[in-house]
Design brief:
204 residues; 3 helices; mainly alpha; 0% strand
Length: 204
């Protein structure tokens, strides 16, 4: 009888040991599964963060793209207008430059010393007309040249303080006297020559 009890106890102990060992295995497997799940969770969270960062960068790209497209579109319109205005102004300045060159050449070519006595009145009228035309063109063109600024680009010294487009310098009596003599001297000499010629003819 005691032997059968011992056998029974042995069997019970063996089953108990196996049950504890099996339980330990289950606990170990459960821990391993838990570790595996944690790793999976960490991996999923990492992928989630990467996707969120990717989404944020894509949104940042779309916003930046739309912003720069708008900026460049507006800027190109402004630049095209400025280029057109600049080309137009360059053409105006080129035209003024050519006109100034022509008037300067005409005025510089006037040489009173080469005038014939008989044509002095005609040449003088022509010279004064050329100077008046040049003065008118100069006054008209000053507004074109200074259009992009708030001041008269061509104004210097006393002329910058004048009220009109052209302010001739003040002249005293001596200047006008000398000028009158200079202008009338050829006519006077011509008249004297004519009188001498007539006297010589009548003397015969």
């Amino acid at each position: 009888m005691p032997e059968r009890l011992r056998e029974t106890d042995s069997l019970l102990n063996l089953e108990e040991d196996e049950s504890i060992e099996h339980l330990d295995d289950q606990v170990q497997k459960a821990q391993e599964q838990l570790i595996h799940l944690k790793r999976q969770q960490e991996q999923i969270e990492k992928q989630k963060r990467e996707l969120e960062e990717l989404s944020r960068r894509q949104e940042q790209f779309q916003q930046g793209k739309a912003e720069m497209i708008e900026h460049f579109t507006r800027a190109l319109v402004v630049l095209e207008r400025q280029i057109y205005d600049s080309q137009k102004r360059a053409e105006q300045l080129r035209s003024v430059n050519e006109c100034f060159v022509q008037h300067l050449a005409i005025i510089e070519s006037i040489n009173p010393k080469s005038w014939e006595n008989s044509d002095i009145n005609k040449e003088l009228n022509r010279a004064l007309s050329a100077v008046d035309d040049a003065r008118t063109e100069y006054a008209r063109s000053r507004a074109v040249i200074s259009a992009e600024t708030n001041e008269d680009v061509l104004a210097t010294g006393a002329s910058a303080e004048g009220s009109g487009p052209y302010d001739p310098p003040a002249r005293d009596f001596a200047y006008w006297l000398k000028s009158g003599v200079a202008f009338t001297l050829p006519l006077l000499l011509l008249g004297i020559g004519i009188i001498i010629t007539l006297c010589f003819l009548f003397a015969k």
